[in-house]
Design brief:
Elements: H1 3-15, H2 18-25, E1 31-35, E2 37-38, H3 43-46, E3 51-52, H4 54-65, E4 70-72, H5 74-79, E5 86-93, H6 97-100, H7 103-109, E6 113-117, H8 119-124, H9 129-139, E7 144-148, E8 155-159, H10 165-176, H11 182-196, E9 201-202, E10 205-206, H12 213-220, E11 224-228, H13 239-253, E12 264-266, H14 276-282, E13 287-293, E14 305-309, H15 316-324, H16 326-334
Parallel strand pairs: 1-5, 1-14, 2-3, 4-5, 5-6, 6-11, 12-13, 13-14
Antiparallel strand pairs: 7-8, 9-10
């Protein structure tokens, strides 16, 4: 179905009052919205679900402020399931634009927001490697790529564009990751950017950086709650490895919030298996959010909380269709798994 036809049908559903009926029918389901990062330049064209323009996000917050939904913290929404039309805001990763680009909008509304922070890149303050490399390959007009990492025997020589960008990104990251020091890896990344003639800076500010400690403290003043997202943005199935990821993440975040309050978790990239659930419980995790789309029904597993992923490519009618429960109803009628 084309986007234009879809929006026309959604508008008809809204005008006929079906959105309103669904909003009432699903009034005791918790809505959990998910956001990620924000675009300094054209990152919203690169990955519209990962990066949103500050203008769109500010408009979203104003839309919510004028909506019938009660904006609550995730903890409050789960603790009081009988309150109607509750909506919780969540944000993954902790991209620097959360402070530099939309900090004023967050401070203006002061809606409770749970920010799941990946601590490794926040601590090291270098660009997130796989996202930065993907962006370079997306944006470059170069016809070839040569990568030789100092002290590493292997190298990469390929023609561009690559027939399989995902594989090339993985190969580049594996090569650069052989360097033990974060600063050295960042230097190789910037050299690669120069070779491909793509800037990883915008008006002097580095792209694909996560929030530093001072920025995270500043966001806490805007009613932002910091929570767990693993240290290196991965959720290994091995019990010891997962425990280490959560422990390191919790230890780093303890500078902002007492460890005993760090009990909310978000699966990195939404990837998890049923075997993760008892492992999370063993490591003191009380709730966990997924990327499964939909509303959180009262009594459902709080270690598998469904969310609604907003993005630059999401029209406000599509968003309201999700928030009202109309899209949820359509999926149920059609038997579409999500």
């Amino acid at each position: 179905m084309s986007k234009k036809i879809k929006l026309t049908l959604l508008k008809l559903a809204e005008l006929c009052g079906i959105f309103a009926l669904c909003r009432y029918w699903y009034r005791h389901h918790l809505r959990v919205l998910c956001y990620h990062g924000f675009a300094y330049a054209d990152e919203h064209q690169f990955r519209p679900k990962l990066f949103m323009t500050p203008q769109t996000f500010a408009a979203r917050l104003q839309y919510l402020a004028n909506s019938p939904y009660q904006i609550v913290s995730l903890s409050e929404g789960l603790a009081h399931p009988d309150r109607p039309l509750q909506l919780a805001l969540t944000m993954d990763d902790g991209w620097s634009g959360t402070s530099e680009l939309v900090g004023d909008a967050l401070a203006k509304h002061k809606f409770p927001l749970m920010l799941y922070v990946t601590s490794y890149y926040a601590d090291k303050q270098i660009p997130v490697l796989n996202v930065a490399v993907s962006y370079l390959l997306w944006k470059t007009s170069a016809s070839a790529l040569h990568l030789q990492v100092p002290g590493v025997a292997d190298s990469i020589d390929v023609s561009l564009p690559s027939p399989n960008t995902a594989v090339l990104v993985k190969q580049i990251c594996q090569l650069i990751d052989q360097l033990p020091e974060a600063a050295a890896r960042a230097e190789v990344l910037y050299q690669l950017a120069d070779q491909l003639q793509v800037s990883l800076h915008q008006q002097g500010r580095p792209l694909f950086r996560l929030l530093d400690a001072d920025e995270l403290r500043g966001l806490q003043q805007a009613n932002v709650e910091l929570q767990l997202h693993t240290h290196r943005h991965c959720s290994p199935l091995d019990a010891e490895a997962l425990a280490t990821e959560i422990s390191q993440n919790r230890q780093w975040l303890a500078q902002f919030i007492p460890k005993e309050q760090l009990v909310h978790f978000c699966y990195p990239s939404g990837e998890y298996q049923q075997a993760h659930l008892p492992l999370l419980q063993q490591n003191g995790v009380l709730t966990a959010t997924t990327t499964h789309i939909g509303l959180h029904k009262q009594g459902s597993d709080v270690l598998q909380i469904r969310r609604i992923l907003d993005g630059e490519d999401v029209h406000w009618l599509e968003l309201e269709a999700e928030l009202s429960g109309f899209s949820n109803l359509v999926r149920q009628v059609l038997g579409v798994a999500n």
